[in-house]
Amino acid sequence: MSQQKTIALDVMSGDRSPRFRIAAALDCLSIHPGLHFILVGDRHFIRDSLTGSATELRSRITVVHADQVVTMDDRPSLALRRKQNSSMWRALEQVSMGVAQACVSAGNTGALMAMGRFLLKTHPGIDRPAIIGQIPSIGRDTFMLDLGANVDCNSEHLYQFAVLGSLMLSEVIGITAPTIGLLNVGQEDIKGDERVRLAQELILANPGLNYQGFVEGHDIFRGTVDLVVCDGFPGNVALKAGEGASSYISHVMRQGTGLTGWRKLYSYLALPFVRHMVRQIDPSRFNGASFLGLQGVVVKSHGGADQREFGYALERAVMEVERNAIYRINDKLESYF
Amino acid sequence: MSQQKTIALDVMSGDRSPRFRIAAALDCLSIHPGLHFILVGDRHFIRDSLTGSATELRSRITVVHADQVVTMDDRPSLALRRKQNSSMWRALEQVSMGVAQACVSAGNTGALMAMGRFLLKTHPGIDRPAIIGQIPSIGRDTFMLDLGANVDCNSEHLYQFAVLGSLMLSEVIGITAPTIGLLNVGQEDIKGDERVRLAQELILANPGLNYQGFVEGHDIFRGTVDLVVCDGFPGNVALKAGEGASSYISHVMRQGTGLTGWRKLYSYLALPFVRHMVRQIDPSRFNGASFLGLQGVVVKSHGGADQREFGYALERAVMEVERNAIYRINDKLESYF
């Protein structure tokens, strides 16, 4: 693999115009002098979009053509078989071939995971990749996985997520002995189903994991632990519920329902700030979420991300490449299995 | 069963002093002239707490002694076998014997459910009771079940929850043809696990249910549907995550982090309002949640509820008794199975 930092970008996938993603890549190139991009998608469209951009930036861009696009409705298993000429597949392929060190896509999560597993493989000992996100919470950010890649995990999968997340935080983010909580419906040991109780036993049996116990939905935003481990179903629901509750507050403040006089005014004036908070609550928009467990950096941006938001996903990929995330995690994984 | 409205109150269970719950019962009696309470717990303590209260109110109170208390740590199955002299058991027994029409408890949810199933039985066709709560959302309140009584539901259980919730809304709350959504990690039909996809088929097969499709975590607070149906694990997590995200916003506003000058002041001044919103987001505190599926009204108050919050749980029980919730639901259930 070359020493040069190269990120493959799935230009075509996502709800918004691919132009935003190309513009975000140009922004990112101007910030990082040593960086290269492989823009994957319709070659005519990409070249057309690059017209007028600085020659120096264009010199650090390679275009790889792909004539298919994975849509949001595509069933992952079908996309895997029938869309091997898609921008998503070709972008991941740049990583599997060692041409790029990371892939960024705003496309169909299930398809990205299926193709990622097929092309990049998982780390030894890891059955499934999971999506990890960074959530603003009181005092410090909380990292959480899985955010929706897997909706029927068993105890062993949850244990693997705890190991992956813990290594990401200690080896890549730089948090010493990160504290870990397992998401449940209560803190008492009798709470939850067999699956989380058994996962707790597996995690407790490993002294390398700084496990704190069960945590609940509100703990995600309270900074109770550095890392919240969960199945992707409740993880995804919790994240979106947090965003929904914040939007509700912002909505009621905007309406000023139940408020009178000065308080209505104050509330109105504080609104931009609340809106800012609401946006921050949704990490898929704000931070980019990355797949953990694959033998390659894959960052998933929100499908509806605008240029700035997509830029965050690109920054996340740059950070993971610069810090050698995959090698560091791979290196330490062995001792856990 | 007598025509008199009687509510059995588990005085002893809950995190706070039982005095708050007795005070809430006295408040409730003063609002509802035809109402009676059976206070269940330590008879000496209860009599002592009633000293000094108005004679008329005391004339509508019966005390039933119980010398055991179910704790929050008690395993439901053990509580069921060994705590048949507890205030929780005795309070539920008042309903099963037909002396009271409802039971209210702030105790251990799992034990309340286990004892409720044993003493009151479920409606014909219903395997498990679920907890339904009322959540403030944009435009209208959203009802949601299950909020944590069951953490490993199958598709048939989810279907039963949809039927129970729909009947509660149409027959008791008075919402015509309530709209129903099934909680999932995405709106597309391919999303989620086998369990929610099969539950969707079961619900769609019944024309009596006004089903709208899959909903996501944010929809709970957006008023997308009248009723959100889910397993108790993600349901509980979503609810608490919503409360956590709101608390986070309130915290950041209090700190004024990242704000300067006037905006900091505005934010500070709007804070009481945001706090009020945060409290509203947590329905277990604000509305009381009730068990659906049992052949008797059982309302679950938050363990840490104060006098006012416990009062909401009592009001919910009064409402369900006045509207004959159990009979109305029982009457209509047959056509769904």
UniProtKB/TrEMBL annotation, chains A, B:
It is found in: Cytoplasm. Keywords: Acyltransferase, Cytoplasm, Lipid biosynthesis, Lipid metabolism, Phospholipid biosynthesis, Phospholipid metabolism, Transferase. GO terms for molecular function: acyltransferase activity. The keyword Transferase applies. Gene3D superfamilies: Isopropylmalate Dehydrogenase (3.40.718.10). Its main location: cytoplasm. Pathway: Lipid metabolism; phospholipid metabolism. Transmembrane segments: none annotated. It catalyses: a fatty acyl-[ACP] + phosphate = an acyl phosphate + holo-[ACP]. InterPro entries: FA_synthesis, Phospholipid_synth_PlsX-like. It comes from the Bacteria. Its EC number is 2.3.1.274. PANTHER family: FATTY ACID/PHOSPHOLIPID SYNTHESIS PROTEIN PLSX, PHOSPHATE ACYLTRANSFERASE. Catalyzes the reversible formation of acyl-phosphate (acyl-PO(4)) from acyl-[acyl-carrier-protein] (acyl-ACP). This enzyme utilizes acyl-ACP as fatty acyl donor, but not acyl-CoA. Homodimer. Probably interacts with PlsY. Belongs to the PlsX family. This is Phosphate acyltransferase. It comes from Kistimonas scapharcae.
